[in-house]
Write a structure and sequence with these properties.
The complex is a heterodimer of chains A (377) and B (153).
Chain A: H1 4-13, H2 21-28, H3 32-38, H4 55-65, E1 87-89, E2 93-96, E3 102-104, E4 110-111, E5 114-121, E6 143-149, H5 154-157, E7 169-170, E8 185-192, E9 198-205, H6 211-214, H7 216-222, E10 225-226, E11 239-246, E12 250-258, E13 264-270, E14 274-279, E15 287-293, E16 297-305, E17 310-315, E18 320-322, E19 324-327, E20 336-345, E21 347-348, E22 355-356, E23 359-364, E24 370-376
Antiparallel strand pairs in A: 1-2, 2-10, 3-5, 4-5, 5-6, 6-9, 7-8, 8-9, 11-12, 12-13, 13-14, 15-16, 16-20, 17-18, 17-23, 19-20, 21-22, 23-24
Helix pairs in contact in A: 2-3, 2-4
Chain B: H1 4-23, H2 26-42, H3 50-69, H4 77-82, H5 93-99, H6 103-113, H7 119-126, H8 130-152
The chains are: A mainly beta (377), B mainly alpha (153).
């Protein structure tokens, strides 16, 4: 058999490289990036040209020509979208805002542990701002709202109960503000966005902002609609892959987070609680997670091998509880299926103590054959 | 300050080839690489690792374009000739085979065997865990090996 590595290396190495400079220059043009995507070679007779690299001055000249500083600081890699009737689209969602407001949609810049998605302001970008403070600055009557996939600060990540619907409330005191000017009011929301991605939303309201200035905030937050971009499961961003409502726990979601550094966590969340289990590369076939629900109940959730067709919890008391299987996108976590077992009466002690009463998780395949049996914890 | 000239020289050709093999289409590769470089320059102040960012961005842009087209354009022998691949000694079939793999499998194959990235780096570009990236590589490799074995017979 042909050596695969050598075959791939040889074949790909011999692909001729065209002169990319003109295309990079055109993409740097503020209209260029969209023009580039729309433009296609009209001719069917596309031929490669020999590689020409005259890089050093050309790229910098192009950047200077179009007013971009390669030493840029300040606003974070922002690129201005062209708002159409107060609507804008990011790779992850669409949103609407008043015509008099402005929007900046940064190109997916990482902010803390999250990804900055959009920033909407009641004032134009070049408005005079108040002096002092750090981070975002506002005119004295300005309002700003910032959408981030995931969370920006560890303190936000420690919040275990994100809302299932978009909402803003007072910013919790332990969360450091993104930046304030004078005594701006701060509002905060942590919720699952329209395409299942966990989002944090920060709003700043400057002291002289009127009720009319503030009114659009709620409308902007609830205007979010999914765009179904090519990648839902951004690294580091917890994303819901399944949801439902049950009489036992109410609204629930199962989510997945591909960690940037490697590894995947699958979480079970309700509006009251949420915890996750790491799915590692070990030989373990069942990764269960035990969650205390109230004072006297325990819920089991996690992942099973995807030939599982049935999961049952056999409690020492004799109770048998049927679990529920939840499909996981196989592109994200191949070979696994999610599961959860409704809460049962039990007590989960601290580390080193057993689940009381004890329980065994029994997994069967489609033929009814037992494929896993795991005593908990 | 990032030296974009050096970055282009170091990464540009290799990145183009990898994306061209991934997309099965030089036009998509050209647009994706150009757009990635342009965005990298524009976001210069906030990108800590431009080289890593470039690879991830270029693959994503190319994936997005392929997704929009809802197909990858397989390179058949005639298309390969038309695009001017002039080396008669090179086997174009491997590119055809790679091009029809599912996106993450072919990306894993190219990033591992052409770019020689480790699994952690591949996982970052693909946006998945290292374990998942290993699965993509294994499945892509198994598919290619099966086809190549049967063609050797």
């Amino acid at each position: 058999m042909t050596d695969l590595r050598k075959a791939v290396e040889d074949a790909v190495s011999q692909i001729p490289v065209p002169d990319l400079q003109p295309y990079i220059q055109r993409s740097i043009d503020p209209e260029g990036s969209r023009a580039m995507v729309r433009t296609r070679m009209d001719t069917a007779e596309y031929r490669h040209r020999p590689l020409v690299i005259g890089v050093a001055f050309t790229i910098f000249a192009a950047a200077a020509l179009f007013g971009w500083s390669v030493l840029s600081s300040g606003e974070q890699g922002n690129q201005q979208t062209a708002p159409r009737n107060g609507e804008a689209e990011t790779p992850w969602f669409r949103l609407s805002y008043p015509d008099s407001w402005s929007i900046v949609t940064p190109s997916g810049t990482r902010v803390g542990e999250g990804i900055l998605a959009a920033q909407v302001t009641s004032f134009p970008r070049n408005s005079p701002t108040c002096v002092g403070g750090e981070g975002d600055s506002l005119p004295s009557d300005g309002v700003l709202i910032r959408f981030t996939l995931g969370w920006e600060q560890p303190a936000e990540g420690a919040l275990t109960t994100p809302a299932f619907e978009p909402t803003l409330g007072p910013e919790p005191e332990h969360i450091h503000p993104i930046g304030a000017c004078g005594s701006s009011e701060r509002r905060f929301g942590m919720f699952f966005g329209p395409d299942g991605q966990l989002m944090t939303v920060h709003a700043l309201i400057a002291p002289d902002a009127s009720a009319n200035d503030i009114k659009p905030l709620a409308e902007i937050v609830t205007s979010l609609a999914p765009t179904g971009g090519p990648t839902r499961f951004e690294p580091g961003i917890e994303t819901a892959f399944a949801s439902g409502t049950s009489p036992e726990v109410g609204d629930w979601k199962m989510t997945l987070k591909n960690d940037v550094a490697g590894g995947t966590t699958v979480n079970f969340r309700t509006k009251e609680f949420g915890w996750g289990v790491d799915v590692d590369g070990s030989n373990e076939h069942v990764h269960p997670l035990l969650i205390s629900v109230g004072a006297d109940q325990v819920l089991v959730a996690g992942v099973l091998p995807n030939n599982a067709a049935e999961v049952t919890l056999a409690v020492e008391t004799g109770e048998q509880i049927q679990g529920k299987l939840v499909s996981i996108p196989q592109e994200e976590l191949p070979g696994w299926v999610g599961f959860w077992v409704p809460p049962f009466r039990a007590h989960l002690g601290g580390e080193g103590t057993r689940l009381t009463p004890g329980a065994v998780l029994i997994v069967r395949d489609v033929a009814g054959q037992e494929i896993e049996r795991l005593r908990l914890p | 300050m990032h030296d974009f000239a050096q970055l282009f020289e170091a990464e540009g050709p290799r990145l183009f080839r990898a994306i061209a093999a991934f997309a099965g289409n030089d036009e998509i590769a050209r647009d994706a690489v150009a757009e990635a470089f342009a965005q990298c320059i524009q976001g210069a102040g906030e990108i800590r690792s431009p080289a890593a960012w470039l690879w991830k961005a270029a693959f994503r842009i190319a994936s997005g374009e392929l997704h929009e087209r809802q197909r990858s354009l397989p390179l058949d022998v005639d298309t390969v000739a038309e695009l001017g691949y002039e080396s008669p000694d090179r086997d174009p079939q491997i590119l055809e085979l790679i091009a029809v793999l599912p996106p993450k499998q072919k990306a894993a194959i190219i990033l591992r065997y052409y770019v020689d990235y480790d699994m952690k780096r591949i996982a970052e570009i693909l946006g998945c865990s290292s374990a998942t990236a290993r699965v993509h590589l294994h499945r892509g490799r198994a598919k290619l090996a099966r086809v190549m074995e049967s063609s050797d017979d």
